[in-house]
Known about the structure:
Blueprint lengths: L13 H9 L9 H28 L7 H10 L16 H6 L3 E3 L16 E2 L13 E4 L13
Antiparallel strand pairs: 1-3, 2-3
Helix pairs in contact: 1-2, 2-3
GO biological process, one term: DNA-templated DNA replication
Main location: nucleus
Subcellular location: Nucleus
Amino acid sequence: MEEEHSESTLSLPISRIKKLIKLDPDHVSSTESANYLLGAAAELFIMNLTEQASFHAKTQKRKKISYSDFYEVVHNNDNLLFMKDLVPKTVPLQQLVNENKVILNNKKPSEDDTIDEDSTLSTPQPAQPKQQMLPFMMKNNSDTQEDAVMIE
């Protein structure tokens, strides 16, 4: 006897889970039970990751979970090393400026600013209309070995 699963028992919407499943290029189709199981597994994974980050914050005598807690959990747990590219170490902006990986853009952004792949400097466009853009530009110099970072 198959048990019916209700969407209300999951915090994540089933429609979003289906969209994520369809992102897999090898995906053909999946049953409602499989979608529910993947949603439940995702929720358990998120809960476990959050609990570990919370424990790390408590060991640091803090009540607030921060990005650094997730960084430490991911990079110190062998089971989570697959996420190390998703949770990189943060670098202070001043350090990037000092290392010439980011430069200060003194001009005000205008409507005509576009990203030009041929130029060594490019001006990023805000992703959302009310998003604030910091006056920094990416340094894209092919002479240097290190990759430059975009700061918005």
